[in-house]
Amino acid sequence: MEIIYGTHNVDKINNLKLIIESHQFDVKLYTTKDIGFNKEIIEDGKTFEENSEIKANAIKEYCEENSIKNKIIITDDAGLCVDKLNGAPGVYTSRYAGENATQEQSINKLLANMKEYKDMKDRTCRFVDVLTAILPSGEKIVARGECKGSIALEPGKLGGLTYAPIFIPYGFDKPMGDMEEKEFASVHNHRDIAMNKLMKEFKKLGY
Fold first, then answer.
1. Mind listing the pLDDT tens digit for each residue in 134-170?
2. Catalytic status, residue 34
3. What are the C-alpha distances in Å from 84 to residues 45, 116, 125, 126, 129?
4. Distance in angstroms (rounded) separating the CA atoms of residues 87 and 185
5. pTM for the whole thing?
6. CATH number of 2-204
7. Contact yes or no for 106/167 (Cβ under 8 A)
8. Domain residues of the chain, as ranges?
9. Alpha helix stretches (DSSP H) within 68-180
10. Across the chain, which distance is largest between two alpha carbons, in Å?
């Protein structure tokens, strides 16, 4: 099995490799850099599912144009959804405070929009990751993973994922940004959940 994962991110590739190996698949992984794909993709979908599929279709088209065959294409779209903000920032997570906003600006905007909600039960949210796989046959499989939590009243340590300093995972009393690496990995798992679902679908199809 050969997979093109729609990313340049080495950490994402290594994480995917671990999950694939845990399912006993024999696989060769490629990044978009490995296949020479560097086109800008306009992610103008209204949902994570739409954006993930837009990315997958763009890579599929590139593969067809360049005679890259018999590979599974996997792409994802992810973001933070806050219940009291009707799911915002959602698909706009990476540009919620503007295209080139700093982490601090993004966090400050979100906290400002949540300032009327002082009770933690009103500050529920979730990280979402949606994966789209296009098989060599053209069949598409979609898998969704979620990591639930709440928005902190004040940010913790800055750095890492944009909203990690204010995302308190369900069952914890501190934001992700304040966690040790091992503890962080155990709760920042929305992509892992989606990927495990995808691997189970592959097994059903006889891969």
1. 999 999 999 999 999 999 999 999 988 899 999 999 9
2. no
3. 22, 10, 8, 12, 20
4. 24
5. 0.91
6. 3.90.950.10
7. no
8. 2-204
9. 103-113
10. 56
